[in-house]
Amino acid sequence: MNDTIVAISTAFQEGAISIIRLSGDDAIEIANRLFSRNLLDVPSHTIHYGMIQDNDQPVDEVLISVFRAPKTYTKEDVVEINCHGGIYITRKVLSLCVGAGARVARPGEFTERAFLNGRIDLTQAEAVLDLIQAENTQGASKALSSMKGSVTRLIHPLCEDLLQIIAHIEVNIDYPEYEDVEQLSQEVVLPQAKEWYRRIEKIIKQAENSYQIKKGINTVILGKPNVGKSSLLNALLEEDKAIVTDIAGTTRDLVEGVVHCKNVTLNLIDTAGIHDTVDIVEQIGIERSLKALDKAELILVVLDASKELDDEDKKLLALTENTNRILVYNKNDLNKPEEGISISALNQEIDILIDEINKRYESQIHDSNEVTLNNERQIGLAIAARQSMKQAIDALENKVELDLVTIDLQDAYTSLKEILGEVSRDDLLDALFSNFCLGK
Ligand code: GDP
Predict the structure, then answer these.
(1) ipTM for the complex?
(2) Residue 288 marked in a binding site
(3) CA of 371 to the centre of ligand 1 (A)
(4) Domains and CATH numbers, the chain
(5) Ligand 1 mean position to 227 CA, how many Å?
(6) Residue 100: which of 110, 89, 92, 90 has the closest Cα?
(7) Which of 67, 135, 223, 409 is the S-S candidate for 227 at Cβ 3.0 to 4.6 Å?
(8) 230 known member of a binding site
(9) Which family does it belong to (predicted)?
(10) Residue 305 three-state SS
(11) Is the pTM of this model over 0.95?
(12) What would the mean pLDDT of 316-322 be, rounded to a whole number?
Protein backbone atom coordinates (compact mmCIF):
# COMPACT_ATOMS: atom_id res chain seq x y z
CA MET A 1 0.00 0.00 0.00
CA ASN A 2 3.02 2.30 0.44
CA ASP A 3 4.34 3.00 -3.00
CA THR A 4 8.00 3.93 -3.00
CA ILE A 5 8.88 7.57 -3.40
CA VAL A 6 12.20 9.06 -4.40
CA ALA A 7 13.67 12.56 -4.32
CA ILE A 8 16.94 14.43 -4.33
CA SER A 9 17.22 15.42 -0.69
CA THR A 10 20.15 17.80 -0.92
CA ALA A 11 20.14 21.18 -2.66
CA PHE A 12 20.06 20.61 -6.41
CA GLN A 13 23.32 22.28 -7.39
CA GLU A 14 26.91 21.27 -7.95
CA GLY A 15 28.48 20.03 -4.74
CA ALA A 16 30.64 17.32 -3.27
CA ILE A 17 27.82 14.95 -2.42
CA SER A 18 24.15 14.58 -3.29
CA ILE A 19 21.71 12.39 -1.42
CA ILE A 20 18.90 10.64 -3.22
CA ARG A 21 16.38 9.28 -0.78
CA LEU A 22 13.88 6.47 -1.25
CA SER A 23 11.05 5.55 1.10
CA GLY A 24 8.42 2.82 0.83
CA ASP A 25 7.90 -0.93 0.71
CA ASP A 26 10.20 -1.43 -2.31
CA ALA A 27 12.92 1.05 -1.37
CA ILE A 28 15.57 -1.61 -0.69
CA GLU A 29 14.49 -3.74 -3.65
CA ILE A 30 14.74 -0.76 -6.02
CA ALA A 31 18.18 0.29 -4.76
CA ASN A 32 19.31 -3.31 -5.00
CA ARG A 33 18.40 -3.41 -8.70
CA LEU A 34 20.80 -0.53 -9.39
CA PHE A 35 23.63 -1.48 -7.05
CA SER A 36 26.72 -3.59 -7.75
CA ARG A 37 26.26 -5.51 -4.50
CA ASN A 38 23.38 -7.31 -2.86
CA LEU A 39 21.41 -5.15 -0.41
CA LEU A 40 18.44 -7.43 0.18
CA ASP A 41 19.68 -9.08 3.34
CA VAL A 42 21.85 -6.37 4.88
CA PRO A 43 20.99 -5.35 8.44
CA SER A 44 19.21 -2.08 9.20
CA HIS A 45 21.18 1.11 9.76
CA THR A 46 24.23 0.03 7.75
CA ILE A 47 26.22 1.74 5.01
CA HIS A 48 27.48 0.00 1.86
CA TYR A 49 30.10 0.98 -0.66
CA GLY A 50 29.69 0.08 -4.34
CA MET A 51 28.66 1.21 -7.82
CA ILE A 52 25.37 2.41 -9.22
CA GLN A 53 24.94 0.77 -12.60
CA ASP A 54 22.77 1.40 -15.61
CA ASN A 55 22.47 -2.00 -17.31
CA ASP A 56 25.92 -3.03 -16.14
CA GLN A 57 27.39 0.31 -17.20
CA PRO A 58 28.94 2.04 -14.14
CA VAL A 59 27.32 5.40 -13.39
CA ASP A 60 28.82 6.47 -10.06
CA GLU A 61 30.71 5.23 -7.06
CA VAL A 62 28.38 5.63 -4.09
CA LEU A 63 27.62 4.91 -0.45
CA ILE A 64 24.18 3.50 0.27
CA SER A 65 22.57 3.67 3.72
CA VAL A 66 19.84 1.16 4.46
CA PHE A 67 17.25 1.81 7.17
CA ARG A 68 14.58 -0.79 7.75
CA ALA A 69 11.10 0.08 9.04
CA PRO A 70 9.94 1.11 11.53
CA LYS A 71 12.87 3.01 13.07
CA THR A 72 13.25 5.45 10.17
CA TYR A 73 12.27 9.01 9.29
CA THR A 74 9.04 7.87 7.63
CA LYS A 75 8.52 4.61 9.57
CA GLU A 76 8.92 2.89 6.18
CA ASP A 77 11.98 1.26 4.64
CA VAL A 78 14.34 4.10 3.72
CA VAL A 79 17.42 4.05 1.49
CA GLU A 80 19.77 6.95 1.00
CA ILE A 81 22.16 6.96 -1.92
CA ASN A 82 25.16 9.26 -1.42
CA CYS A 83 26.47 9.95 -4.90
CA HIS A 84 28.85 12.54 -6.30
CA GLY A 85 27.19 15.94 -6.28
CA GLY A 86 27.21 16.78 -9.95
CA ILE A 87 23.90 17.83 -11.45
CA TYR A 88 24.12 15.24 -14.23
CA ILE A 89 25.00 12.34 -11.91
CA THR A 90 22.37 13.29 -9.36
CA ARG A 91 19.66 13.47 -11.96
CA LYS A 92 20.84 10.24 -13.57
CA VAL A 93 20.63 8.31 -10.28
CA LEU A 94 17.17 9.78 -9.66
CA SER A 95 15.94 8.71 -13.07
CA LEU A 96 17.41 5.21 -12.63
CA CYS A 97 15.40 4.92 -9.39
CA VAL A 98 12.26 5.97 -11.24
CA GLY A 99 13.07 3.47 -13.99
CA ALA A 100 13.39 0.78 -11.34
CA GLY A 101 9.91 1.49 -9.96
CA ALA A 102 9.99 4.51 -7.64
CA ARG A 103 7.72 7.53 -7.99
CA VAL A 104 9.08 11.07 -7.70
CA ALA A 105 7.97 12.48 -4.33
CA ARG A 106 5.87 15.60 -3.93
CA PRO A 107 7.39 18.41 -1.85
CA GLY A 108 7.27 17.47 1.83
CA GLU A 109 6.06 13.95 1.13
CA PHE A 110 8.69 12.24 3.30
CA THR A 111 7.64 14.33 6.30
CA GLU A 112 4.00 13.83 5.37
CA ARG A 113 4.55 10.07 5.53
CA ALA A 114 6.27 10.45 8.91
CA PHE A 115 3.09 12.23 10.05
CA LEU A 116 0.61 9.86 8.39
CA ASN A 117 2.48 6.84 9.74
CA GLY A 118 2.21 8.31 13.22
CA ARG A 119 5.86 8.96 13.94
CA ILE A 120 5.33 12.67 14.46
CA ASP A 121 2.27 14.86 14.92
CA LEU A 122 1.40 17.92 12.88
CA THR A 123 3.14 20.42 15.18
CA GLN A 124 6.32 18.39 14.84
CA ALA A 125 5.98 18.24 11.06
CA GLU A 126 5.58 22.02 10.98
CA ALA A 127 8.65 22.30 13.19
CA VAL A 128 10.72 20.45 10.57
CA LEU A 129 9.84 23.19 8.10
CA ASP A 130 10.55 25.88 10.74
CA LEU A 131 13.94 24.32 11.41
CA ILE A 132 14.87 24.30 7.73
CA GLN A 133 13.77 27.94 7.44
CA ALA A 134 15.24 29.16 10.74
CA GLU A 135 17.37 32.26 10.39
CA ASN A 136 18.92 32.48 13.83
CA THR A 137 19.83 30.42 16.90
CA GLN A 138 16.62 31.34 18.71
CA GLY A 139 14.41 30.28 15.82
CA ALA A 140 16.33 27.06 15.30
CA SER A 141 16.29 26.01 18.95
CA LYS A 142 12.58 26.75 19.19
CA ALA A 143 11.91 24.67 16.09
CA LEU A 144 14.04 21.86 17.43
CA SER A 145 12.19 21.79 20.71
CA SER A 146 8.83 21.70 18.87
CA MET A 147 10.18 18.92 16.69
CA LYS A 148 10.89 16.98 19.83
CA GLY A 149 7.30 17.49 20.89
CA SER A 150 7.22 20.54 23.17
CA VAL A 151 4.02 21.88 21.59
CA THR A 152 2.48 18.44 21.83
CA ARG A 153 3.27 18.37 25.55
CA LEU A 154 1.69 21.81 25.92
CA ILE A 155 -1.59 20.86 24.24
CA HIS A 156 -1.94 17.20 25.10
CA PRO A 157 -2.73 17.64 28.83
CA LEU A 158 -5.45 20.16 27.94
CA CYS A 159 -7.02 17.63 25.59
CA GLU A 160 -6.86 14.95 28.26
CA ASP A 161 -8.52 17.11 30.91
CA LEU A 162 -11.24 18.16 28.52
CA LEU A 163 -11.82 14.59 27.49
CA GLN A 164 -12.29 13.65 31.15
CA ILE A 165 -15.10 16.18 31.53
CA ILE A 166 -16.75 15.19 28.25
CA ALA A 167 -16.50 11.48 29.04
CA HIS A 168 -17.93 12.00 32.51
CA ILE A 169 -20.92 13.89 31.17
CA GLU A 170 -21.50 11.23 28.53
CA VAL A 171 -21.43 8.45 31.08
CA ASN A 172 -24.01 10.40 33.08
CA ILE A 173 -26.21 10.72 30.02
CA ASP A 174 -25.83 7.19 28.69
CA TYR A 175 -25.88 5.35 32.01
CA PRO A 176 -27.96 7.45 34.41
CA GLU A 177 -28.46 4.37 36.59
CA TYR A 178 -24.73 4.04 37.46
CA GLU A 179 -24.57 4.90 41.11
CA ASP A 180 -20.78 4.79 41.45
CA VAL A 181 -20.35 7.59 38.94
CA GLU A 182 -20.96 11.02 40.40
CA GLN A 183 -23.93 12.75 38.77
CA LEU A 184 -22.50 15.98 37.37
CA SER A 185 -24.35 19.26 37.51
CA GLN A 186 -23.74 22.62 35.90
CA GLU A 187 -22.31 23.85 39.23
CA VAL A 188 -19.67 21.13 39.21
CA VAL A 189 -18.67 21.49 35.56
CA LEU A 190 -18.60 25.30 35.49
CA PRO A 191 -15.45 25.84 37.60
CA GLN A 192 -13.64 23.14 35.59
CA ALA A 193 -14.64 24.81 32.34
CA LYS A 194 -13.47 28.16 33.66
CA GLU A 195 -10.15 26.72 34.75
CA TRP A 196 -9.69 25.12 31.35
CA TYR A 197 -10.59 28.44 29.67
CA ARG A 198 -7.97 30.21 31.79
CA ARG A 199 -5.30 27.74 30.68
CA ILE A 200 -6.04 28.03 26.97
CA GLU A 201 -6.25 31.83 27.36
CA LYS A 202 -2.74 31.84 28.79
CA ILE A 203 -1.41 29.69 25.95
CA ILE A 204 -2.96 31.99 23.35
CA LYS A 205 -1.63 35.13 25.03
CA GLN A 206 1.88 33.70 25.22
CA ALA A 207 1.73 32.58 21.61
CA GLU A 208 0.55 35.98 20.42
CA ASN A 209 3.23 37.75 22.43
CA SER A 210 5.88 35.42 21.14
CA TYR A 211 4.65 35.81 17.58
CA GLN A 212 4.78 39.60 17.85
CA ILE A 213 8.40 39.48 19.01
CA LYS A 214 9.25 37.03 16.24
CA LYS A 215 7.73 39.12 13.45
CA GLY A 216 8.90 42.50 14.80
CA ILE A 217 6.98 45.56 16.03
CA ASN A 218 5.56 47.81 13.33
CA THR A 219 6.92 51.16 14.41
CA VAL A 220 6.23 54.62 13.08
CA ILE A 221 8.46 57.60 13.76
CA LEU A 222 6.21 60.64 13.88
CA GLY A 223 6.99 64.32 14.25
CA LYS A 224 6.79 67.64 12.51
CA PRO A 225 9.54 68.59 10.04
CA ASN A 226 13.05 69.10 11.33
CA VAL A 227 12.63 67.56 14.78
CA GLY A 228 15.12 64.84 13.79
CA LYS A 229 13.04 61.87 12.60
CA SER A 230 15.41 60.90 9.82
CA SER A 231 18.37 61.37 12.14
CA LEU A 232 16.71 59.05 14.65
CA LEU A 233 15.98 56.49 11.96
CA ASN A 234 19.60 56.65 10.87
CA ALA A 235 20.83 56.39 14.41
CA LEU A 236 18.68 53.28 14.72
CA LEU A 237 19.70 51.83 11.43
CA GLU A 238 23.25 53.02 11.86
CA GLU A 239 23.29 53.63 8.16
CA ASP A 240 22.20 56.38 5.81
CA LYS A 241 18.97 55.07 4.41
CA ALA A 242 17.00 58.30 4.66
CA ILE A 243 18.25 61.67 3.47
CA VAL A 244 19.03 64.02 6.32
CA THR A 245 18.90 67.73 5.51
CA ASP A 246 17.86 70.83 7.39
CA ILE A 247 15.32 71.92 4.77
CA ALA A 248 11.85 71.35 6.22
CA GLY A 249 9.88 68.51 4.68
CA THR A 250 12.51 66.58 2.73
CA THR A 251 11.47 63.14 3.92
CA ARG A 252 8.74 62.64 1.40
CA ASP A 253 8.47 58.92 1.09
CA LEU A 254 8.00 56.17 3.58
CA VAL A 255 11.37 54.64 4.31
CA GLU A 256 11.34 51.18 5.74
CA GLY A 257 13.99 49.37 7.67
CA VAL A 258 14.31 46.56 10.15
CA VAL A 259 16.36 47.23 13.25
CA HIS A 260 17.25 45.00 16.14
CA CYS A 261 17.19 46.92 19.40
CA LYS A 262 18.58 44.46 21.93
CA ASN A 263 15.75 41.91 22.23
CA VAL A 264 13.15 43.73 20.18
CA THR A 265 12.96 43.93 16.41
CA LEU A 266 11.38 47.06 15.02
CA ASN A 267 9.91 47.20 11.55
CA LEU A 268 10.51 50.90 11.10
CA ILE A 269 8.53 53.21 8.94
CA ASP A 270 9.75 56.78 8.68
CA THR A 271 7.05 59.23 7.69
CA ALA A 272 6.80 62.57 6.05
CA GLY A 273 6.39 65.24 8.71
CA ILE A 274 2.74 65.59 9.39
CA HIS A 275 1.88 69.29 9.23
CA ASP A 276 -0.18 71.76 7.28
CA THR A 277 1.39 72.34 3.92
CA VAL A 278 0.63 73.58 0.44
CA ASP A 279 3.29 71.41 -1.15
CA ILE A 280 1.32 68.87 -3.12
CA VAL A 281 4.08 66.23 -3.24
CA GLU A 282 4.51 66.50 0.46
CA GLN A 283 0.75 66.25 0.95
CA ILE A 284 0.79 62.80 -0.65
CA GLY A 285 3.49 61.74 1.76
CA ILE A 286 1.40 63.01 4.65
CA GLU A 287 -1.63 60.98 3.62
CA ARG A 288 0.56 57.92 3.43
CA SER A 289 2.00 58.53 6.85
CA LEU A 290 -1.48 58.82 8.33
CA LYS A 291 -2.22 55.44 6.76
CA ALA A 292 0.98 54.06 8.25
CA LEU A 293 -0.30 55.16 11.65
CA ASP A 294 -3.20 52.73 11.39
CA LYS A 295 -0.79 49.84 11.03
CA ALA A 296 1.56 51.02 13.75
CA GLU A 297 1.94 48.98 16.90
CA LEU A 298 4.35 51.48 18.41
CA ILE A 299 4.65 55.20 17.67
CA LEU A 300 7.77 57.17 18.46
CA VAL A 301 6.57 60.76 18.68
CA VAL A 302 9.63 62.93 18.17
CA LEU A 303 9.64 66.42 19.73
CA ASP A 304 12.35 69.06 19.59
CA ALA A 305 13.71 69.51 23.11
CA SER A 306 15.40 72.76 22.16
CA LYS A 307 12.10 74.49 21.43
CA GLU A 308 8.75 75.06 23.11
CA LEU A 309 6.00 72.70 21.91
CA ASP A 310 3.93 74.50 19.29
CA ASP A 311 0.46 73.88 17.87
CA GLU A 312 1.75 71.33 15.38
CA ASP A 313 3.39 69.29 18.14
CA LYS A 314 0.19 69.50 20.15
CA LYS A 315 -1.84 68.24 17.19
CA LEU A 316 0.42 65.20 16.96
CA LEU A 317 0.15 64.60 20.69
CA ALA A 318 -3.64 64.71 20.41
CA LEU A 319 -3.60 62.44 17.35
CA THR A 320 -1.59 59.76 19.17
CA GLU A 321 -3.17 60.18 22.60
CA ASN A 322 -4.59 56.67 22.94
CA THR A 323 -1.93 54.76 21.09
CA ASN A 324 1.10 52.82 22.24
CA ARG A 325 3.49 55.74 21.95
CA ILE A 326 6.76 56.94 23.37
CA LEU A 327 7.38 60.68 23.54
CA VAL A 328 10.96 61.17 22.44
CA TYR A 329 12.61 64.53 23.19
CA ASN A 330 15.35 64.92 20.61
CA LYS A 331 18.27 67.35 20.44
CA ASN A 332 19.00 67.07 24.15
CA ASP A 333 22.54 68.22 23.32
CA LEU A 334 21.00 71.66 22.79
CA ASN A 335 18.69 71.59 25.78
CA LYS A 336 18.34 68.76 28.28
CA PRO A 337 14.74 68.36 29.47
CA GLU A 338 14.09 67.58 33.15
CA GLU A 339 12.25 64.33 32.51
CA GLY A 340 10.99 61.95 29.81
CA ILE A 341 12.94 60.05 27.21
CA SER A 342 15.49 62.49 25.88
CA ILE A 343 18.05 61.66 23.20
CA SER A 344 20.45 63.17 20.75
CA ALA A 345 19.85 61.52 17.39
CA LEU A 346 22.66 63.57 15.92
CA ASN A 347 25.20 62.22 18.42
CA GLN A 348 23.71 58.71 18.26
CA GLU A 349 22.85 58.90 21.95
CA ILE A 350 19.69 56.82 21.91
CA ASP A 351 20.32 54.08 24.50
CA ILE A 352 17.65 55.37 26.87
CA LEU A 353 15.08 55.00 24.06
CA ILE A 354 16.20 51.46 23.28
CA ASP A 355 15.95 50.57 26.97
CA GLU A 356 12.45 52.02 27.15
CA ILE A 357 11.34 49.99 24.11
CA ASN A 358 12.74 46.80 25.63
CA LYS A 359 11.06 47.60 28.95
CA ARG A 360 7.74 48.04 27.21
CA TYR A 361 8.00 44.61 25.56
CA GLU A 362 9.48 42.84 28.57
CA SER A 363 6.63 40.39 29.07
CA GLN A 364 6.42 39.60 25.36
CA ILE A 365 10.16 38.93 25.28
CA HIS A 366 9.77 36.65 28.27
CA ASP A 367 6.92 34.76 26.58
CA SER A 368 8.91 34.37 23.39
CA ASN A 369 11.42 32.27 25.31
CA GLU A 370 8.71 29.93 26.57
CA VAL A 371 7.27 26.96 24.73
CA THR A 372 4.42 28.39 22.68
CA LEU A 373 2.28 27.63 19.69
CA ASN A 374 4.36 28.41 16.65
CA ASN A 375 2.23 29.67 13.82
CA GLU A 376 -1.09 31.17 12.80
CA ARG A 377 -2.69 27.80 12.11
CA GLN A 378 -2.00 26.64 15.65
CA ILE A 379 -3.01 29.95 17.25
CA GLY A 380 -6.19 30.13 15.13
CA LEU A 381 -7.29 26.70 16.31
CA ALA A 382 -6.54 27.57 19.93
CA ILE A 383 -8.70 30.68 19.54
CA ALA A 384 -11.51 28.55 18.08
CA ALA A 385 -11.20 26.22 21.09
CA ARG A 386 -11.39 29.19 23.46
CA GLN A 387 -14.51 30.45 21.65
CA SER A 388 -16.25 27.07 21.98
CA MET A 389 -15.34 26.98 25.65
CA LYS A 390 -16.73 30.48 26.14
CA GLN A 391 -20.03 29.25 24.70
CA ALA A 392 -19.94 26.27 27.01
CA ILE A 393 -19.36 28.55 30.01
CA ASP A 394 -22.26 30.83 28.98
CA ALA A 395 -24.49 27.80 28.59
CA LEU A 396 -23.47 26.43 31.98
CA GLU A 397 -24.15 29.77 33.62
CA ASN A 398 -27.60 29.78 32.04
CA LYS A 399 -28.27 26.29 33.37
CA VAL A 400 -28.49 24.74 29.90
CA GLU A 401 -28.70 20.92 30.07
CA LEU A 402 -25.32 19.21 30.16
CA ASP A 403 -26.03 17.05 27.12
CA LEU A 404 -26.26 20.27 25.09
CA VAL A 405 -23.20 21.80 26.73
CA THR A 406 -21.08 18.83 25.62
CA ILE A 407 -21.54 19.91 22.01
CA ASP A 408 -19.45 23.03 22.73
CA LEU A 409 -17.00 21.03 24.81
CA GLN A 410 -16.59 18.58 21.93
CA ASP A 411 -15.96 21.46 19.53
CA ALA A 412 -13.26 22.83 21.82
CA TYR A 413 -11.72 19.38 22.03
CA THR A 414 -11.79 18.90 18.26
CA SER A 415 -10.07 22.24 17.63
CA LEU A 416 -7.30 21.35 20.04
CA LYS A 417 -6.84 17.92 18.52
CA GLU A 418 -6.60 19.56 15.13
CA ILE A 419 -3.56 21.52 16.34
CA LEU A 420 -1.85 18.15 16.70
CA GLY A 421 -3.28 17.05 13.35
CA GLU A 422 -5.30 14.27 14.86
CA VAL A 423 -8.51 15.26 13.13
CA SER A 424 -6.96 17.08 10.22
CA ARG A 425 -8.57 17.54 6.85
CA ASP A 426 -6.86 16.49 3.63
CA ASP A 427 -6.89 19.96 2.10
CA LEU A 428 -5.14 21.28 5.15
CA LEU A 429 -2.46 18.65 4.85
CA ASP A 430 -1.94 19.34 1.18
CA ALA A 431 -1.53 23.04 1.87
CA LEU A 432 0.89 22.39 4.69
CA PHE A 433 3.17 19.84 3.10
CA SER A 434 3.40 21.60 -0.23
CA ASN A 435 5.43 24.31 1.56
CA PHE A 436 8.24 21.83 2.00
CA CYS A 437 11.19 21.52 -0.29
CA LEU A 438 11.49 18.37 -2.32
CA GLY A 439 13.15 15.44 -0.65
CA LYS A 440 12.22 16.45 2.91
P1 GDP B 1 13.24 65.37 10.15
O2 GDP B 1 12.75 66.41 9.18
O3 GDP B 1 12.36 65.28 11.34
O4 GDP B 1 13.48 64.03 9.53
O5 GDP B 1 14.63 65.90 10.74
P6 GDP B 1 16.11 65.54 10.29
O7 GDP B 1 16.55 64.27 10.85
O8 GDP B 1 16.23 65.77 8.82
O9 GDP B 1 16.93 66.66 11.09
C10 GDP B 1 16.67 68.04 10.89
C11 GDP B 1 17.88 68.83 11.38
O12 GDP B 1 18.05 68.65 12.80
C13 GDP B 1 19.19 68.38 10.75
O14 GDP B 1 20.00 69.52 10.54
C15 GDP B 1 19.81 67.51 11.81
O16 GDP B 1 21.22 67.49 11.74
C17 GDP B 1 19.35 68.19 13.08
N18 GDP B 1 19.29 67.27 14.19
C19 GDP B 1 18.71 66.04 14.22
N20 GDP B 1 18.88 65.47 15.43
C21 GDP B 1 19.59 66.33 16.16
C22 GDP B 1 20.10 66.30 17.51
O23 GDP B 1 19.95 65.35 18.26
N24 GDP B 1 20.79 67.39 17.93
C25 GDP B 1 20.99 68.47 17.13
N26 GDP B 1 21.66 69.46 17.62
N27 GDP B 1 20.54 68.52 15.87
C28 GDP B 1 19.85 67.49 15.39
Answers:
(1) 0.98
(2) no
(3) 43
(4) 5-116 (3.30.1360.120), 148-212+375-421 (1.20.120.430), 217-366 (3.40.50.300)
(5) 6
(6) 92
(7) 223
(8) yes
(9) Belongs to the TRAFAC class TrmE-Era-EngA-EngB-Septin-like GTPase superfamily. TrmE GTPase family.
(10) coil
(11) no
(12) 86
